[in-house]
Amino acid sequence: MFASFSAWSVRGRGPVRLAAGTLVCGLAATGVMAVGASPAAAGETAPQQGGATATIGGLKTFGAAVIRMEDGSDQQVSAGLFEMSVDGGGMLQTYCVDVHTPTQKDAKYHEAAWSSTSLGVNDDAGRIRWILQNSYPQVNDLAALAKKAGVRGPLTEEDAAAGTQVAIWRYADDVTVDAVDPQAEQLADYLEKNARNLKEPRASLTLDPPVVSGRPGELVGPVTVRTDARSVTVAPQANAARDEVRLVDKNGEPVTEAVNGSQIFFEVPEDTEAGTARLTAQAATTVPVGRAFSSVSRSQTQILAGSSESTVSASASVTWAEEGAVPAVSARENCAKGGVDVTASNQGDEPFTFEVVGQKHTVAPGESRTVTVALSEDAPYDFTVQGPDGFQQRFTGMLDCLTRAAETGNAARTYSAPSPTPLGGTPSDTNLAATGSSSATPWIAGTAIGLVVLGGAGLLVARRRETPPGD
Fold first, then answer.
1. Run means of pLDDT, 10 residues per run, the chain, 471 residues
2. E-strand spans in 19-112?
């Protein structure tokens, strides 16, 4: 059962009458992303650090709002709560960030740090979290909420959802937007006026660092579990029990469960041929309110308003070798720098020289180095870190660091009535084509497969003769 999910009511699920030529925040799409049966390329990684992955359904509880455009025109939109179904079980409620970008039905989302979204470059992101914690559905006593906010008249679920979304847009998109219903507008004004900056909530589950390296015959790590779940399962693949590499604690005792702060090591026997291994941790927990959710396609960023107990997962890998450089390479999107931070560490006895986007960098033994790969906004990226002895690590994704209003300077724009937009397909509406949700199907499919990998639990050992370390 949901602790504070009165918004799962069927009320408000009927259509809101919008004027012709409006942009709908919860744009419904009839198309569903098709994913090929073949696995993602070895070594391909989406630079995320774990948590929940989910599929967005649509707006479930909502009202209407009006965006006041700079050219003096008004654009009417739907404003309210979305519903997401979590891979592995669970439900999420979210509000949207980036009002001018459509939300594609059935788009895949993953939990993300603020730093990898437009929230990372928004000084008011903490105020949005305050709004989420102090309004609907976290506060589901609507009479009490109306009284506290000074709302005159009854406050319905639709009003509460619309007013909350409007207040969020005012801080997330820096747009002039008003709720159509008077009660919703009064709530929005109260939330905007009283919002205070709060810290970003921590991830539901991460493994830190996501990649380690070392020598066979040693305990390689540690990988630290960060979570608010009561317990985390660390399970090898069902047919991998015979593999030499084990998951252990600092005393060498086998690990199958962990808690927040637990340290996990890879035990690599002596004389084990150079290779790699992977572990996946999984837990059931409520995702913290205020966590961001990014799409692997150009579907607008969401921010969490409520969560049932949901499945969350994270993975980490190890690379080992007897001699030479022993690298560990990971990546993280960094919107403040407009790119992806690539971090390489080296636990070997020789320098590790790697090349990325035409630039060479060297990491001395026992050291690490972070370089930023500058990327274009709203464009799929695909680059490979290459090193000696066939080392390759590929990173794919899409940098989505700015709201559409920030990109266009909130200039006046004209929208025709939106047509359903198949995920990864070509929109029939020319204005929607400008949002970036166009012909990127091959990239979308490949990235989605990479995300699905996080949902499994596995310890996969690969030998250098079959797959170069880091793949």
1. 33 31 35 25 56 94 94 93 97 93 90 94 96 98 97 96 98 93 98 97 96 95 96 72 79 96 95 90 97 88 97 95 95 93 96 96 96 90 94 91 69 29 30 28 32 36 38 37
2. 44-45, 53-68, 74-86, 91-96, 108-112
What does residue 29 show for φ and ψ, rounded to 5 degrees? Answer: -120, 140
What is the rounded distance in angstroms from the CA atom of residue 259 to the CA atom of residue 261? Answer: 6
**Amino acid (one-letter) located at 65:** A
SS3 110: strand
Q: What is the DSSP letter of 317?
A: E
CA proximity to 141, closest of 39, 6, 41: 6
Written as one letter, the residue type at 71 is: D
DSSP 278: E
Provide the residue count of the chain. Answer: 471
CA atoms within 13 A on the CB side of 226: 14
Q: End-to-end CA distance of the chain: give it in Å, rounded.
A: 41
> Using an 8 Å Cβ cutoff, are 235 and 258 in contact?
no
What is the C-alpha separation between 374 and 355, in angstroms, rounded? 15
Q: Comparing C-alpha atoms, which of 236, 232, 145 is closest to residue 187?
A: 145
pLDDT of the residue at 177: 96
Q: How far apart are CA 11 and CA 329, in angstroms?
A: 49
* Burial of residue 454, with CB atoms counted within 10 A of its CB: 0-12 exposed, 13-18 middle, 19 or more buried: buried
CA distances to 126, 339, 449 from 397, rounded to whole Å, are 26, 11, 12
Helix, coil or strand: residue 193 = helix
pLDDT digits (tens, 9 = 90+) for 404-443: 767 665 433 322 222 223 333 333 322 222 223 333 323 3
Q: What is the predicted pLDDT for the residue at 409?
A: 56
| CB-CB contact of 99 with 64 (8 Å) | no
Say which residues have a Cβ less than 8 Å from residue 262's Cβ, sequence separation at least 6.
224, 225, 232, 249, 255
Q: What does the alpha-carbon distance between residue 185 and residue 166 come to, in Å, rounded to a whole number?
A: 8
How many whole angstroms separate alpha carbon 178 and alpha carbon 184?
Answer: 9
Rg of the chain's alpha carbons, rounded to an integer?
Answer: 23
Residue type at position 144: A
Instruction: Give the per-residue pLDDT at 210.
Output: 94
Q: Write down the pLDDT at residue 54.
A: 97
